[in-house]
Design brief:
Blueprint (H helix, E strand, L loop, with lengths): L5 H4 L7 E3 L2 E3 L4 E10 L5 E10 L2 E9 L7 H11 L2 H4 L3 E7 L4 H6 L22 H13 L5 E6 L5 E9 L4 H10 L3 E4 L7 H7 L4 E7 L6 H17 L13 E10 L4 E5 L6 E2 L4 E6 L6 E5 L4 E7 L3 E2 L4 E8 L3
Parallel strand pairs: 5-6, 5-7, 7-10, 8-9, 9-11
Antiparallel strand pairs: 1-2, 3-4, 4-6, 8-10, 8-16, 11-18, 12-14, 12-17, 13-16, 14-15, 16-18
Length: about 325
């Protein structure tokens, strides 16, 4: 799976852009509908796509969120980005923004679709398959062909809080270049998974970075602000906007591990998400609810905390603290 050099992927001209038969001209801002999907109640749900185009040629960037219906931080990031004046009047190129890909799961506040499928395991999809397969098909057929690269926004799962991070495959230099332009605090080497949007886009030579920040169904304003600033830095790096924001000293993470509970009880975290820790540093304590025992939870490696389990009641073997090990030059 080879990804071509990024400069060769930037659009050479700013002609008409067509998404599923709907045309957006250069210099035009327009909200179109990717497609509509029918529920068992005969209710039809639509996926809005916001397209902002400059008259001058430049890159075509995708910002997408809501792949899972309970991941609200990314939805808020894109909402705030596309409402900014400098983004509404970009200088060059095209911004394609889909704040809520999975409108059906968003309606129910759930991760999965009504049939139990995870939309991010339905790619590349089929035109006459399940609803998840149809959404995946529409994204691959109508959105991926008109973009050069993108960022897909996610959060941790239920009770898992991820420190703001970009996930990509380090073996492809374009991914690291885009990650450094976005400049999240952490950039993590993350292999492709079968059936995902990111993997299928890469097969089409369209790099998609995954931004992770916060946890599901809970606004995390640090993660939201980092996501907004990353988008603005990315656009500024391609001269799409004039706003210049300082970046983070991004730490590249090559390996990661979870520290797990050796006993059950009430877990009290004693270090902050994103902190640098050394091997054997105290991370927290697990107390027996009856007050007669406690267990120290210590780091197994030197590294950065990239995610924590916020659940106070833990069982033996539960994953508690996710630690990433910095790549060595």
């Amino acid at each position: 799976m080879n990804v071509t050099n990024l400069p060769n992927q930037v659009s050479k001209k700013q002609g008409p852009l067509v998404i599923n038969g709907q045309t957006i001209e250069a210099g035009e801002n327009k909200t179109i509908i990717l497609n509509s999907y029918e529920l068992h109640t005969k209710t039809r749900l639509e996926i809005p796509v916001h397209v902002i185009r400059a008259k001058e040629p430049g890159p075509s960037i995708l910002l997408s969120a809501g792949m899972h219906g309970e991941e609200t931080n990314g939805i808020e990031i894109i909402r705030k980005v596309i409402s900014r004046e400098e983004v509404q009047s970009i200088k060059r190129g095209t911004l394609v923004a889909i704040p809520v890909i999975n409108v059906i799961s968003f309606l129910f506040g759930s991760r999965d679709l009504p049939d139990g499928r995870d939309l991010n395991r339905c790619f590349p999809g089929t035109r006459k398959g399940s609803v998840g397969s149809r959404i995946a098909y529409d994204l691959m057929q109508h959105v991926i062909p008109v973009i050069d690269f993108g960022v897909d926004f996610h959060t941790g799962g239920a009770k898992i809080n991820n420190f703001p991070q970009i996930r990509c495959v380090f073996d492809f230099a374009d991914n690291i270049d885009l990650g450094l332009r976005f400049s999240a605090p952490l950039i993590i080497d993350s292999p492709y998974r079968e059936g995902t949007f990111r993997q299928e886009a890469a097969k089409k030579h369209k790099p998609i970075l995954v931004y992770e920040g916060g946890e599901s169904m809970r606004f995390d304003y640090k993660a939201i602000n980092e996501g907004i600033q990353g988008c603005l830095r990315l656009m500024h790096s391609f001269e799409m906007i004039d706003l210049d924001l300082p970046g983070n000293a991004s730490v590249k993470i090559r390996k990661d591990t979870w520290v797990r509970a050796n006993s059950s009880g009430l877990f009290h975290m004693s270090v902050s998400n994103g902190a640098h820790v050394h091997k054997d540093d105290l991370l927290g304590l697990i107390f027996n609810p009856f007050g007669d025992t406690e267990e120290k939870v210590v780091s197994t490696v030197d590294g950065y905390i990239v995610g924590i389990n916020n659940q106070p009641v833990v069982n033996q073997g539960d994953a508690l603290v996710h630690i990433g090990v910095e790549e060595q030059d």
